[in-house]
Amino acid sequence: MKRLLSTLLLALLLLTSCGGPGPEKTVEAFFAAAKTLDTQAMASLILPSNTQTIEDLKGFLKEEEDDIFTNSFREYFTQAAAEITHRVVETKVEGDKAKVTVEGTYVDSGTLLSDVFNELFRRAFEISFGGGEITPESQELMFKEIIKDLIPQTLESNATKTFTVDLVKYEKQWYFDEISQEMMDVLSAGFVSAANKLDFFGGFDEEEVEEDN
């Protein structure tokens, strides 16, 4: 009886493996790459025909000479990415399409982003009001100084999002069809939703500025 059960179990495993890795394996591989910000590996798991998403991922945090924001936050993004955790909640497969519900835990940087830009605008206002000039070089230096002052020494995951990702099976391999905003929020330490909420041109309280002056 035991031998029969073992044989049936082995047959079941073989039948399962013949279909290739399931969609969960693609999700697992993607988040493993995300924790180290391996954007090339992440991009390789996007459906090949979705070239725009692939290019966007490859360009995520890519060093650009005139990109002050990315250059200043790169180290922080790297530290925050290492804190990402996830678990697959549910998987639904219909033919060559699958929906995987994922719960992602991450560092929420909404307050940090708001504080950084509030301080940046405040300093820029004071320099301009005093007749000074702000150059790209001085702005980047100011940005980095503010980030260094405001970023906590230890980062901890403090936010959770549950989202569903669509995957497509192409040539026996499961790929992400696209990256949703909710998923990108987890990958970017909450910067996507924070940037959408933050009014960059009204990032400081005018009453507070008047009181300071």
Sequence-ordered SSE layout with sheet pairings:
Elements: H1 2-18, H2 23-34, H3 39-43, H4 51-59, H5 68-81, E1 85-94, E2 97-106, H6 110-129, H7 136-150, E3 159-170, E4 173-176, H8 181-187, H9 191-197, H10 206-212
Antiparallel strand pairs: 1-2, 2-3, 3-4
Q: Overview of this structure, please?
A:
There is one protein chain. The chain is α+β, with helices and mostly antiparallel strands. The chain has a single domain, classed as Roll (Nuclear Transport Factor 2, Chain: A). It is about 55% helix and about 15% strand. It contains 10 helices and 4 strands. A 4-stranded antiparallel beta sheet has the order 1-2-3-4. A hairpin with a 2-residue loop joins strand 1 and strand 2. It is elongated and about 65 Å long. The N terminus and C terminus are likely disordered.
Short account of what is shown:
By secondary structure, the protein is of the alpha+beta class. The protein contains 10 helices and 4 strands.
Per CATH, the architecture is: Roll
The spatial strand order of the largest sheet comes to 1-2-3-4
Total beta-strand segments: 4
Biggest sheet details: 4 strands, antiparallel
According to CATH, what is the class? Alpha Beta
Number of helices: 10
Euclidean distance between termini CA atoms: 87 Å
H and E string: HHHHHEEHHEEHHH
Give the number of domains.
1
Which stretches of 5+ consecutive residues score pLDDT under 50?
2-18, 200-213
How big a fraction of the residues is strand? 15-25%
Radius of gyration: 23 Å
Quote the average pLDDT: 80
Shape: elongated
* CATH topology term: Nuclear Transport Factor 2, Chain: A
Helix share bin: 40-55%
Structural class: alpha+beta
